[in-house]
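ok trying this again, last paste got cut off
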Amino acid sequence: VSSKGFPDIVAIHPTWGGVAWECKMPGNEATRNQINWLMLFDGVGFATGVIFPADLDELYKVIESTS
C-alpha cells in the first residue's frame, strides 16, 4: 500500500481506539487506493468508513459519547 489515498481523518484515542475516515462530497466515491487504506486500518481494529457532510451530526454524537 502506498501513501496515495491515505484517509482524510486518522485519530487514535487511548480509551476508544482508532478511527480512519475518508471524507467525500455527495456523488463522489472512494478510489481503490482509499479503499485499500481503509481495509488496512480495519484489519488492525480501527473503525473505518467513508463519510459525507450529511453524516457529521451522527459523528459528533459518537465523538461526544466517548469523551
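PB: full thing came through this time. The chain is about 35% helix and 25% strand.
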